[in-house]
Amino acid sequence: MTEYKVPLNDMDFLLYDVFNVDEVWRSLPQLAEQLDKDVAGAILQECAKIAEQAIAPISREGDEEGVSFKLNDNGIGGKVTTAKGYKEAFATYAEGGWCGLGGDVEYGGMGMPKVLTAFHEEMLSSADIAFALYPVLTAGAGLSLAKHGSEGLKEKFLTKMYSGQWTASMCLTEAHAGSDLGLIQTKAVLQDDNSYSVTGSKIFITGGEHDLTENIVHLVLAKLPDAPAGPRGISLFLVPKILVNDDQSLGEPNKVSCGAIEHKMGIHASATCVMNFDGAKGYLIGELNKGLACMFTMMNFERIGVGIQGLSAGERSYQNALAYAKDRKQGRALVKNETTKSANNADSIMVHGDVRRMLLNMKALNEGSRALSCYIALQLDYATYGSGELQAKGEALSALMTPLAKAFFTDLGFENTVTGQQVFGGHGYIREWGQEQLVRDARITQIYEGTNGIQAMDLLMRKVVGSQGKLVNIFIDEVRSYLQTVTGDSQLTEFAQPLSQALDDFSQVSSALIKQADVNLNDLGVAANDYLHLFGYTAMAYIWMKMAQSSLQKTTQQDAGQSEMFYQSKVHTARYFFTRLLPRRLSLMATINTRSDCLFNIDDDLF
Amino acid sequence: MTEYKVPLNDMDFLLYDVFNVDEVWRSLPQLAEQLDKDVAGAILQECAKIAEQAIAPISREGDEEGVSFKLNDNGIGGKVTTAKGYKEAFATYAEGGWCGLGGDVEYGGMGMPKVLTAFHEEMLSSADIAFALYPVLTAGAGLSLAKHGSEGLKEKFLTKMYSGQWTASMCLTEAHAGSDLGLIQTKAVLQDDNSYSVTGSKIFITGGEHDLTENIVHLVLAKLPDAPAGPRGISLFLVPKILVNDDQSLGEPNKVSCGAIEHKMGIHASATCVMNFDGAKGYLIGELNKGLACMFTMMNFERIGVGIQGLSAGERSYQNALAYAKDRKQGRALVKNETTKSANNADSIMVHGDVRRMLLNMKALNEGSRALSCYIALQLDYATYGSGELQAKGEALSALMTPLAKAFFTDLGFENTVTGQQVFGGHGYIREWGQEQLVRDARITQIYEGTNGIQAMDLLMRKVVGSQGKLVNIFIDEVRSYLQTVTGDSQLTEFAQPLSQALDDFSQVSSALIKQADVNLNDLGVAANDYLHLFGYTAMAYIWMKMAQSSLQKTTQQDAGQSEMFYQSKVHTARYFFTRLLPRRLSLMATINTRSDCLFNIDDDLF
């Protein structure tokens, strides 16, 4: 596999050319104190080093070896051993302080905003999704604990999670309760010491057991015996693998055990565990019966994080495929010209239109996803660090676009891994090249943290219809205002015209669906997936136009020097996106506008 | 995994309701002798039994165990051992005479037409693609040998291939020569006894070595020392693993060895071998320097066969996903009605629009692919057994539609395996359910036997532009004539109108691209993939309309009885295809109509 190279240029471009985040940071008191362009630059560069040098090299072998499980001698639960090199890589990562990058500064975190932690997550996941899951889930659990945990819990557990001495897991799913958490059966019973006795079995628990750290902090959804039925009776508990004394030293093992690990299509080096709680001691996080809300604190961050995992696999796939395409010689160009670099008998496959199509699909969708994820991360930062209108808008847009990020970026990421594999021909199917691993690893991102179908329903039903269009109109208005600022700029017409058309169509479709909610909800259930993608391509067109604008300004200024090629490439890629990828919306429009009869008029027995 | 059930009803429907093949058979003298509805029915039923009972059960374990390779003591080459149960399953299969199902009756074959062998291949591959490859490639090699081999070679080798005592392999690819066979370096030197000494190394050779049979017949592309450069200097040789005496008994081992096997994403139970020929004794097949033509005899059959493999994985995926969806309970229906079968706390996920969308996508695309593959198989049968105009048209349409079948069915098949996996949620990612294996197995079908990008170029450049539209107009005229026969049938308007529009658009796009070939060939290279898919959806719409018509006649006649539900389901599924899937063509039209500038104006260094 080609060595992974973090796209730092592109990240800098987004931060400073497109989104002017240094100005944003100066305007937000909490961030202004501790962050500027230099600090951010140092963070991204150091993080890139770790991703490229410490993590990427273990990924291929980690896939082959996977994690292993050995039952304990007493027959209750077993131990998980990670693949060669993972323990050392995690230690290196933790020593760098990266586990607390986005953490609360009061408990030893670095307090960095999402625009930086999002890039951090991309690097980690491009290097190895399986590795990234251990720290990324710990960071997510940390967010929930930081916001909802008691002072005592935070001092005892959060500090150790930030330092990377302990990791965390999120224990939600049960065998019969996947997307439908209201059905969970894990029980929690109050004890005399105000702790809870937690009993139940959870499946699909990422990092539920492993040998990377001495302790694991489980956040567990459970119900009190007298709790209300359904989602409104769920509470969140912190259940440590090993009990912790007041001085943070480790005490007795808790009644938590790993019953088995799953054998999966990919992310072999990530332990996916069956976790059994057998009267384990747990501590309530937040209020009773408000567990889902506590969980959702981390969900918004994690779902964008999973979206970014999709992008990360797509980026890696592109880098590998590009290197292969430049090197591989097969066939001759259809049109010979001076740029065709002929070998004796064959040209590089870069001369073939279909290969260029595949490469540019990946490039345009990856860079578009990165830019859009940066935009959404910025909204989360406004929501967290901003105030007044800015904060309100940040909250609205991040709520709206979280399911979009999760589903759209992972669908595109998976597509891009498959495309990159195709560039390799037969070699893409062979394990040693690593392309097929990317396909297998990326595939989970469309499934976990809420399937993409669930995300589409969240977007359309809860966010769009639920707010009667208020949230989506905030986005539409922003784009419309932006388009007004560039009216008459002839250099931008090629982007402004199709974006404007796409926006009008998207707006019309959104309104129509909101109305349709009063007529037949099934029409919305059926349209949700296509609607999410329509939103995605429209939003991506907006961001691609902004990138093209920034790049055109730079190439015109001719201050670009070495990086002039970078800006030229951006403009070309923007053009490609508008010409060849934005038209995907036409088919989506056509199907969204049909009704659900042709799906619901068929009796189940006729399937 | 759900037990595989061969869709015999659908196969019968296509053969007799839609394509009236019993009449066709009666009209073709060579087939009329040996084949009628009863014989065909017995063949399909027996074959279904083998697929369901002998082959499907070994697939899951075959994936886990894979094939193993052990180097010989002398260090030259090694032995391949297949997974548990494969030897027995192959023996059962061979004893049934299935290896010669489509073979030449003069040498012990059963002489069955492609419409039947195509269904046979679908069953085999649905049961286990990895297993199917051994007999299917042997059948393909048999076609080439039957058509181009000398009497002596056929008596000696073909009879044993039909009986299943020996298998065959196709040795084309070399490390530096994948899609570009003109670059091969394997040499063949004439010997005193008129045999050839073959020397060279081949990669990606499916079934190049294994323990299923005592001998393996390799068909090897090689060049004579003084052969013309490029594709016009390629000859085809038969090189047995073990030399064969005149009485068909086995003699000395030939100088052929397996150097290694590949570790792949899927089809683990299929041996993909590096084959080394070190002065091996070989026999010329056909004329010198006409090797590619001999190879292409089997290519047209094999490529449709690979297309059918895509369908086969999609069919299996659908069967599994449907069973899971009916069983799995999560969430509640958006709209409650009398058909909503509520459990205590959750409905079956069949109530969710997005799940129905996924299931119907699979159903409509699978059944459409099966019908279209049956149509193309019929064209091949006209070409083989017909005469005069019928034969000419069969040749034209099968030449035109072979690359379509290969690429379109495998792209859809892969999509359907991914969709089926998604229906399972997290369980789709776990190995034990088998859904992820289908994804991994299906993925190769888009790559081997000529990547789908190569197929698209073959379709557009060689078949459409190469004939100046003659071939594609034969298809367009047929559909137009068909549409005229149903003018005024109000029951069919919902299908006729969109089909007519799609056909007009496809015709216009085809003409435009043929003209564009004189302006800029790169525009065609860039459009090829989308053009292939546009053709696919248009052709599938034609076939779906024919299926809807046949089914409506049956439901109207009310002679359907038990099978009335079958015909109702067909009509509903046709409606779904036209409403929700045919609109995919709109985005394809939009991109085909753009030019290649935005791909070729970017310098390679800007990627």
UniProtKB/TrEMBL annotation, chains A, B:
UniProt cofactor(s): FAD
Record domain Acyl-CoA dehydrogenase/oxidase N-terminal: where: 44-165
Keywords of this entry: FAD, Flavoprotein, Oxidoreductase
Every Acyl-CoA oxidase/dehydrogenase middle domain range: 169-278
Domain (Acyl-CoA dehydrogenase/oxidase C-terminal) ranges: 289-461
Gene3D superfamilies noted in UniProt: Acyl-CoA dehydrogenase/oxidase, N-terminal domain, Butyryl-CoA Dehydrogenase, subunit A, domain 2, Butyryl-CoA Dehydrogenase, subunit A, domain 3
Domain Acetyl-CoA dehydrogenase-like C-terminal: 475-602
Pfam family for this entry, one: Acyl-CoA_dh_N
Family: Belongs to the acyl-CoA dehydrogenase family.
Protein name, UniProt field: Acyl-CoA dehydrogenase C-terminal domain-containing protein
